[in-house]
Structures are given as C-alpha cells and as structure tokens.
Protein 1
Amino acid sequence: MYKLYTRPGSGGFVVEAALAMAGAPFEQVDVPKTEAPDPAFLAISPLNQVPVLTLPDGHSLTESAAICILLAERHPQAGLAPEAGSSARADFLRWMAFMSSVLYPAILRLYYAHRYTVDGEGLQPVKQAAVAEMDRGFAILDRALAGRDWLAGETLSLADIYLVMLVAWHPDIEKARNAWANIERLWARLRQHELMRKLNASHEMWA
C-alpha cells in the first residue's frame, strides 16, 4: 500500500487525485508545518516539504510532478497520462517538466520570499519578480490550450489537474481568470468534476 505524506492546500492535492483516479489504496499522513522539523520526516524529505509518497516496497519519492509521472506509469489502465510512446505523452512530459521547473519554483519564491534573499528589506522585489515569472508561464500554457480541451492528448490527464492546482495559488485569482481564458475554461470544467470538488472540500484550493 502507498503512504502519502501531505497537508491541506499543498501539492499533495494532485497526488491524492492521481491515487483516487488509479483506485490505489493509500494511507494518508498529515504533516503539520512546524518550526522544528521532525527528523524522521527529514529522512525521507530532506527539504521538509510535502508531498512525499512512500511506495509499497518502502522507497520514498518527493516532488509532486515526479510522483504523478511514476503513478501514471504504474497504473496505465487509469489513464492518468496519455499512452506511452504517443506524441501526446511527449506533450504530457513536456508540460509536467515545464510546470514543475518554471511555475512551481516561482510560486515558492512568492510565498517563501525570505528563502531567496539575504536582504531582509528586499522581499518585495523577490515577490514581484516571482509573480512576473508566474504570469509569463501561465501565458505560455494558456496559448498551448488554445483550441484544445486538454493540455496533453484528448482526455483529462494529471497535467490538467497539476495546472489548475498551480493557477489556484495565483495571488490575484480574478486577474488569473480574466487574463487566461483557456486556462479558465479548463479550470471551470474541473471545478465541476466530482473528484476535484471532493478534494477541494478538504484542501480549499479555490472558492
């Protein structure tokens, strides 16, 4: 059985979605934010971040995008990602890597700006640059969705859920919904998705 270390409002949202869609039983462990990290948790998450997924063989994996890709490989029947070897699978991998390397780090710089500067008075420029990078990344994804229902392939994949999780963290939700019509179209669809509604009830990702 899988074991998922997570907390409400975290990147565990998309991993919970993946496990539910795969019909994979898992034990959930809520990890509170604390000033003094738990040494046992640091042993499996050196950055003291969630989510962490412990596999049935005891191996632990960090990084939500990597966890999603692994679960898609382990549960191909669940349709978590386009079929391996297809051009849509290439798009899936591209956008998962893009979101995890461009958008997720920018979001962290916004909400944890103190980690990215030694100048205690310089937090605002870090935050402003982070939002600008977020906006640039979301604009690229919005263009990628033009004329398409889904980010990769012809059906819902974890890339779509990952995207709406990230856009839900934008500091100006109204701006996000108005600026990127294609992302909003996707997000509106997922806001009505039964599983997304259930997960949002516990994570409170969007109103």
Protein 2
Amino acid sequence: MVKKFLEGGKIVGTHGVRGEMRVECWCDSPQFLAQFKTLYFDEGNEKVKVKSRAHKNMVLVKIPNVDTIEQADLLRGKILYIKRSDIKLEEGVNFVQDLIGLEIKDSDSDEVYGVVNDVLRTGSNDVYEMKGKDNKMYYIPAIPDIVDEIDVDGGKILITPMKGLFSDED
C-alpha cells in the first residue's frame, strides 16, 4: 500500500529563544526537507506552514504561533510528514519507505527469499537488509548485476543472486 504521507523527520530539540526547532532529517539531505513550505503532523492529518533551513546535518523549522522555547519544546518528539504528491522523483528512484516490506524473489524461479527489513545507505550503493525465510538477516547489494526489477505496486523486488549471497560458499 502506497502511503499518501511520508516521514520526513523528527523534532529533537529547540534552537534559539524564538521557537525555532531542530529536526532530525530522515530524507536524503537536510536541504531536501528544508525546501517544503508545508509539512504535516499526525500522519498527515494536521497541516502546518513552516519556514525551514538546513543547518549542518539538521533542519531548523519555524512554525507560526510557536514563538518561545517552551512552546517549541512541547513539540519535541513529534514526527513531521511530507505529502507524497509534493515530491517529484526521478525515473527509477523509490522512497525507502516504499521498499520496506517488499518481497525479494528470484527473477528466474520466482522463489521468495525474504522481505526487505531496511535499506542501508553505504555511499557507493544501497544495500537491502532482508529477513530470510530462515529468520536470518541477509544483505543484498542494490546494484544492476543483482537487482533486476523493483515493482513497488506488485510488492516485490526481483533479483539474480550472486554466488555466496545466501550461503558461505565461495
């Protein structure tokens, strides 16, 4: 199921004395999250206008009528959401939240290996953390030699496993 609202980050503290808040960014970069003028609380049920700016590895957010440290501190721990339709992705790029829970299957045999548990960012390429049918964790490099197709709507990722991916063999 495709979510209409995606988690963008979490308010982790205050900044200054005028109600500005520090947000731990859960996006690709603080600059990405800071571009939005409207964010949401309560999984999209509460719309909030914001003024944001990237600051180091955080985003500083100011919400109207939150003008003191005390008011800002009451929002600590709240999650900020982005409306999916406000985001434009390049072709072939997916949201991490859409990949979690997808089945990983063999491209040839359709055998189910497991389910994506997390997506790890390594710098050179992403790695899919997969919980196998044997309850072991496996790590699938998200590279073209292995990942053949990502079908978010179909709930699956098709792969051609390389030798040793699911065992200790050479």
Protein 3
Amino acid sequence: MAEALLFKPVKLICGIIAARDDIFAKSITYLTDRFGPIDHTSLLMVFKFTDYYAKQMGEGLKRKFVSFAELVSPEKLSETKIRTNVLEEDMRKESGSAKRIVNLDPGYMTASALIMATAKDFSHRIPLQKGIYAHLELLFGKNDVKTLSWTYPDYRTDEYQQYFLEVRKTYLKQIKSR
C-alpha cells in the first residue's frame, strides 16, 4: 500500500461581520484562544455589498479579517467552520440576544488560492464533511489577485485584495522557511 501524502500547511484566516466594536474585540479574543496568535488584521470595512445578514444581525454591519500566525492542515477547514459556528451561537447566548450578533467566516490561504468554508451548497462548492463545503474565492498570480465568476462582490474590492496579498507575502515566507 502506498504511503499517504501530506498536504502543505496553509494560512488560516477568518472574516468577522458584526455591527459593534465590542463584538469584534470579543470575537478576536475567542478566536485567538482557539486558533492562536493573529499576525495580520485588516482595516474595519463597511459591509455594504449585500443585505443578506441584515435581517439576522441588523443594520450598520462592518467586516474585518484576521490571519493566524500558526500554519494548519487544510484538512481542518470543516472542523474549524463547525467550531466558529458554535462560537457564534455561544456569543449570541452570552449577549442575551435573540438574534445572531456575529458572523465568523473561516478559510485558508495557499500560495495560489483563498478557500473559504461555508455551510451553503452550490454547484461550484466542494463537500468536505459534516455539512461543510469549500468555496474557492480568489486565485493569486505572482503579484495580483484573480476573481472568479462566483467571487463575492466585497472580495473583488482593492481593500480586501490588498489585505490578502499582504497575508500571502507572510505565508510565502513561512513556507519558504520550513
């Protein structure tokens, strides 16, 4: 029997959508407790490209991304998404809110792509396990970002893409130093 091949480690990232600064702060504390130190944090950006979360979370939503210093196995993506879903619910209960107060979107970066986890099935998404799918969001060229026909509108913005290119530089250095 042939020996199993191991995947190259990847850079764990997480998008955070919320309306209040204290929820962002608490989310980051909880995420670092579970996934380790953060090495990149994006600017806080207005989340204006869809009203999908407004019914669940209210108006005035913003988004921030964080990336984690420790590289992980890509095989952990579905487990990570399940953990962040539980964390969202724990934060909702702690706040006493009847509605969702935060959306946590984990994913990972490779040298060539940004993959996000989702619980929503669609034709271009790949089933992983336990109801979680992999969603190819962006492709990376040598110094640029390539979008796909299904790339979400906010991921097409310069602000998002510049953040991901910075994280990618760190990731490439980490992989090279291994």
